[in-house]
Design a protein that fits this description.
Blueprint (H helix, E strand, L loop, with lengths): L1 E6 L9 E2 L4 E2 L3 H14 L9 E10 L6 H8 L11 H12 L10 E11 L3 E8 L3
Parallel strand pairs: 4-5
Antiparallel strand pairs: 1-6, 2-3, 4-6
Helix pairs in contact: 1-3
């Protein structure tokens, strides 16, 4: 089992935009930054077998939240129900792992993902082999 922590605010996937002659990736800077952080966290070989991927997204607590609500959010008693949506967070996270930790994102056979509030925004990846 492998656990990686990517510090910083989790970024959702965004569809590229197209012009007449070019495809523009809206999240290219965020992708580059996240990939750099992942390369610093993971120095092992690329994983080339089916995996289970558990991802926990810790998003910032809104500033205008009451003190009691902030404490409840930090203790995971209040679930994260606002944007960004979980599926786009998962897509971006899989893209980050591809070529750095795993050979291709088609190796992900099972995903368990959740999003929470936290004073310390981060993404935690737990990767384990699928046993046959």
């Amino acid at each position: 089992m492998l656990e990686l922590v990517l510090p910083g605010n989790p970024t959702p996937w965004a569809s590229p935009t197209f012009s007449r002659f070019k495809v523009f990736d809206k999240r290219s800077k965020e992708k580059d930054h996240a990939r750099k952080l992942l390369r610093e966290c993971y120095r092992g070989d690329l994983i080339a077998y089916p995996i289970k991927l558990k991802i926990e997204f810790y998003l910032p607590i809104p500033k205008n939240t009451s003190k009691s609500a902030k404490e409840a959010m930090e203790l995971k008693k209040i679930p994260h129900q606002k944007k960004p949506d979980l599926t786009n967070l998962i897509k971006f996270a899989e893209d980050m792992l591809k070529g750095i930790v795993i050979v291709d994102d088609n190796l992900v056979s099972k995903i368990v993902a959740q999003k929470f509030y936290s004073f310390e925004p981060r993404t935690i990846f737990t990767i384990s082999a699928i046993l046959r």
